[in-house]
Amino acid sequence: MAQKYPIPSPERFLALATTSVGCGPGGGTPMIARVAVVDYRGQTVFCTFVLPTTTVTDYRTTMTGIQASDLQQAFPGRAMDWNDVQQRVAQLLRDKILVGHMLWQDLSVLGIPHPAVATRDVALYQPFRNALKANQALGLQTLMWHLMRRRVQETHVCALENARAALDLYRSHSEEWEATVARGQWPSFLPPSTFSRCYL
């Protein structure tokens, strides 16, 4: 089938990942605590801890490695104000194609919508799910191990590691992925409808 759209250059891509702590009763509501943005080569573009906007009730330290001291104003430059982070990330993502894993979760805690056609979510990519005979989104650990034979998140969930891992998964199939999009087809499942506000 003839190409309808040009295949984008590597400079147009950024990968995004966040790490959240818990707020509210029982710590069940996610609140962003760290964000990482990397370029197509996996080089860090932006990475910071984020100051809480409300009381943290669960730092999820065993999973995230984040402690209260990471999210305090007592250490200038270590954690940034949420509004500043949101503004900076929104600026970075403008006119970019966004790569990630379960991007709806990252966009939701950042409060930043992004054009759906400019996302490449490895959790939604149909050939990955077909290869693992899965009918739902799979964790990044599972995808990385079965598709790349690489272990991630062995000690803690790290936003920087996750952004690079999602990018590596995307790059492993980027030619097929972009060729499908260029033909005017969409090779991915839709994100959960409850997060439709995260997409333009």
Describe the structure.
It is a single chain. With 200 residues, this protein is of the alpha/beta class. Helices cover 31% and strands 20% of the residues. It has helices spanning 61-64, 82-93, 103-110, 126-131, 140-148, 159-172, 174-182, and strands spanning 13-23, 29-39, 44-50, 56-58, 79-80, 97-100, 119-121. Strands 1, 2, 3, 4, 5, 6 and 7 form a seven-stranded mixed beta sheet that branches. β1 (13-23) and β2 form a beta hairpin. The longest helix has 14 residues, at 159-172. The chain is globular. The two termini are 27 Å apart.
What is the compact description of this entry?
This protein is of the alpha/beta class and 200 residues long. It is built from seven helices and seven strands; from the N terminus they run ββββαβαβαβαααα.
Form type: globular
Largest sheet features: 7 strands, mixed
Structural class: alpha/beta
Succession of helices and strands: EEEEHEHEHEHHHH
The total count of helices amounts to 7
Q: Please tell me how large the radius of gyration is.
A: 17 Å
As residue ranges, the low-confidence spans are none
The total beta strand count reads: 7
Q: Which bin fits the share of residues in helices?
A: 25-40%
How far apart the termini lie comes to 27 Å
Strand content: 15-25%
Mean pLDDT across residues: 89
Features:
7-stranded mixed sheet; alpha/beta; 200 residues
Strand and helix layout:
Layout: E1 13-23, E2 29-39, E3 44-50, E4 56-58, H1 61-64, E5 79-80, H2 82-93, E6 97-100, H3 103-110, E7 119-121, H4 126-131, H5 140-148, H6 159-172, H7 174-182
Parallel strand pairs: 1-6, 3-5, 6-7
Antiparallel strand pairs: 1-2, 1-4, 2-3
Helix pairs in contact: 5-6
